[in-house]
Specification:
Blueprint lengths: L5 E4 L5 H10 L1 E4 L8 H7 L3 E7 L6 H5 L6 E5 L8 H6 L3 E3 L6 H16 L2 H9 L18 E5 L3 H12 L3 E5 L10 E2 L3 H6 L3 E4 L13 H7 L4 E4 L8 H10 L4 E4 L10 H5 L3 E3 L8 H19 L13
Parallel strand pairs: 1-2, 1-3, 3-4, 4-5, 6-7, 6-9, 7-8, 9-10, 10-11, 11-12
Helix pairs in contact: 1-12, 5-7
This protein binds 2-keto-D-gluconic acid.
């Protein structure tokens, strides 16, 4: 089909998104990243009308400026902190994302990390696999049920985490940009105050400039030697250097981390300290959820090229 709109991908996309994209678009797969193909990118750039990427993708003002025909950016992820939305908006470029369909998975992983770090499940598993059980039992772990949970960011995923925590008999409190009086949970004005009142502090706030290093040395000090930090948001929200220091010195009890400042690089300390559980940004990584996210990312593009509003435009573009 000669008239398919041209689309640039800015992430390695799963085949179940790439295949339908290729049916409707002429796809330039990460052509902008490849220095050897810079002439090919320069030639295609004036015709590129759409971008598709993942939650971690960078779509800078510079890239947007290089694409004069760009109309729409579709992110397969709820987070779009890598997209310069202001630059897109100033050019009238729409930005879409994929909220809601991943709430359950990310909330499930938050609880899984809490249980894993508190009950020391990875350590216990290594103990058995290494044949050490006959040498003696594991040290006693930390009970999670009934403990105090603090949630940083009380959006859709934060509320899904709260719901699950209630089933564990936990008391739930939160901090957010503003209090949500309809929710039956205590509001704290700052992460520091929330941390001081929490046994588990779960971070699930959007990334970006507004939340950069929101969880700093002071917040970790308030969480204290009995407290656990869980991050299922963005690595940028936590001061990783301060976190490593707190984990090394016993300033906090432990951490469960799905996200990191410089993915896929994980600092050696976080890979080797015993009071840390690390997983490679798998919050939404189930077959069911990733398929649902791909369908939403595709629906945003299809709606745009059918001259319809995006079914899930980011709030700034609604
Ligand atoms: C994925 C995410 O890592 O939704 C987000 O914001 O970070 C994740 O679900 C990714 O974007 C999948 O494409």
């Amino acid at each position: 089909m000669p008239n398919k709109p041209e689309l640039l991908t800015v992430a390695k996309l799963a085949p179940f998104l790439m295949q339908p994209l290729q049916q409707s678009f002429t796809v330039h797969d990460r052509l902008h990243e490849n220095a050897a193909e810079s002439a090919a990118f320069a030639a295609a750039a004036p015709r590129i009308r759409a971008i598709c990427g993942s939650g971690e993708s960078k779509v800078s003002a510079e890239l947007i400026a290089r694409l004069p025909a760009l109309e729409v950016i579709s992110i397969m992820g709820v987070g779009y902190d890598g997209v310069d939305v202001a630059a897109a908006k100033s050019r009238g470029v729409m930005v879409g994302h994929t909220p809601d369909v991943l709430n359950d998975d990310v909330a499930d992983l938050a609880l899984a990390l809490m249980l894993n770090i508190a009950r020391r499940i990875p350590q216990a598993e290594r103990h058995v696999r290494a044949g050490k059980w006959p040498e003696g039992p594991m040290p006693l772990a930390r009970k999670m049920s009934g403990a105090r949970l603090g949630i940083v960011g009380m959006g859709r995923i934060g509320q899904a985490i709260a719901q699950r925590a209630l089933a564990f008999g936990m008391t739930v409190a939160y901090t957010a940009r503003s209090a949500k009086p309809a929710l039956p949970f205590a509001f704290h004005a700052t992460p520091r105050e929330l941390a001081a009142a929490s046994d588990f502090l779960v971070v699930i706030t959007p990334g970006g400039a507004a939340t950069r290093k929101l969880i700093d040395a002071e917040v970790l000090r308030a969480l204290g030697p009995e407290g656990y930090l869980i991050n299922v948001a963005r690595g940028s929200v936590v001061d990783e250097t301060a976190l490593i220091e707190a984990l090394r010195s016993g300033g906090i009890a432990g951490a469960g981390l799905d996200v990191f400042e410089n993915e896929p690089q994980v600092p050696e300390a976080l890979r080797t300290l015993d009071n840390v559980v690390v997983v490679p940004h798998i919050g939404s990584a189930t077959v069911q959820t990733r398929h649902a996210m791909a369908a939403r990312a595709l629906a945003n593009l299809q709606a745009h090229f059918a001259r319809q509003p995006l079914p899930s435009a980011v709030p700034e573009c609604r």
